[in-house]
Design brief:
The chain is of the alpha/beta class. It has 15 helices and 16 strands.
């Protein structure tokens, strides 16, 4: 397998590309920017259904011009996926239905997008003559509600009674316990990726991610809560907390996540077939109430807050044990909670102040339409 992976990587210098499904989303945009800045061509595969992603696409095109290609398609389209993977030297699979609430309203669509869409991509990758590395983003929801963990309720947060758990977080040894249709569909996809690595020697790994935040995130009440809280506060609009607001998460700045993606790809031969819990870890935790207090400091006024019922499967405490991935790659988060939230806040301020702040396109010696045309021709 090792020689084939090396040949695949060399091909990138001959005009092939990194493929990012869901590439116009928040995480995809940040990863694409990193790869494009290094001179790689990137093909974004996106159905453009999520609000705000068209702004991300336009920003990438303005910033990187002709190195950016787009396939406007859905992962439920096997033929489009087969065409897209033919020129790929690496694949990052982010396309998904991302909200628990939406999965409760339409579990069939949730399954089709998350489980069937991932299986379609795996089959497309299985059809190419040389193995193409794949990194798939799963979720901490595969561990369920964690209701068996004894918690201490403090003034602003929950903390586990178990001091070892408090110091290290939830590890990959935790038994899977899919909860909610979203947890089931992402968990199904998670297990398919691991099994394709085992059964078909696909060089693939899984990230079970905690809460990610940073620039180019247009958060909603259902997903991207750090950005959502900031946006609502900046607009002087009410923020609704489901539960009591003492839920704790280890939030991870997207720049650190992109570093993890790069390291995962560089070490794919060693980590293939493995799942990793990826988040800020015990050093980067915050409760909802604590985040609101920090937003008050940044924004100069206290956010307007109301409370609603707990959501299905909502974990009172989830913090990732990232030691397995750190041991495999040397990765560690670099951006702490206060720095990261303030950077996102400043970015949101700039984004609101002017839609003309995007830098002019940098010419990279290619025609933008070339990569897009190749992708459309293959489709």
């Amino acid at each position: 397998m090792r020689p084939k992976l090396k040949r695949t990587r060399r091909a990138a210098r001959k005009g092939q590309y990194a493929l990012i499904t869901g590439g116009c989303g928040f995480i995809g945009t940040n990863l694409a920017d990193r790869l494009l800045s290094q001179g790689e061509e990137v093909l974004l595969y996106d159905n453009l259904s999520r609000a705000g992603v068209e702004k991300n696409l336009e920003w990438l095109r303005q910033e990187h011009g002709d190195l950016v290609g787009l396939v406007h398609a859905d992962t439920r389209d096997p033929a489009a996926l087969r065409s897209a993977v033919r020129g790929a030297t690496k694949v990052f699979h982010f396309a998904a239905q991302v909200a628990v609430t939406t999965s409760l309203l339409d579990p069939v669509q949730d399954f089709e997008v998350n489980a069937t869409g991932t299986l379609n991509l795996l089959e497309a990758l299985r059809s190419v003559p040389e193995p193409v590395p794949l990194i798939f983003t799963s979720t901490n929801k595969v561990y369920g509600g964690l209701d068996d963990l004894a918690m201490l309720e403090k003034e602003t947060r929950y903390e586990p009674v178990d001091l070892k758990l408090l110091s290290s977080g939830i590890s990959e040894r935790r038994v899977l316990d899919f909860h909610s249709p979203y947890g089931c569909s992402k968990g199904c996809a998670d297990q398919y990726v691991i099994d394709y690595a085992r059964t078909y020697d696909l060089p693939a790994a899984v990230f079970r991610m905690s809460c990610i935040y940073g620039p180019h995130q247009f958060g909603t009440e259902d997903q991207g809560w750090v950005a959502h809280f900031l946006i609502r506060a900046m607009q002087n609009e009410r923020i609704t907390l489901c539960g009591d607001g003492k839920q704790v998460r280890d939030i991870l700045f997207v720049e650190d996540l992109v570093n993890a993606f790069v390291l995962a790809h560089d070490n794919i031969e060693e980590i293939a077939g493995s799942a990793f819990n990826i988040g800020g870890g015990p050093g980067q935790t915050v409760s909802l109430l604590e985040l609101l207090s920090f937003i008050e400091e940044l924004n100069g006024r206290k956010p307007d807050v109301s409370f609603d019922a707990w959501r299905t499967g909502d974990q009172r405490y989830y913090v990732s044990d990232t030691r397995k991935f750190a041991a495999a790659t040397g990765w560690a988060p670099q951006v702490d909670v206060h720095e990261g939230v303030e950077r996102l806040y400043r970015w949101l301020l700039e984004a609101r102040s002017s839609v003309d702040n995007a830098p002019r396109a940098r010419r990279n010696g290619h025609r933008r339409k070339r990569l897009t045309a190749v992708a459309e021709e293959r489709a």
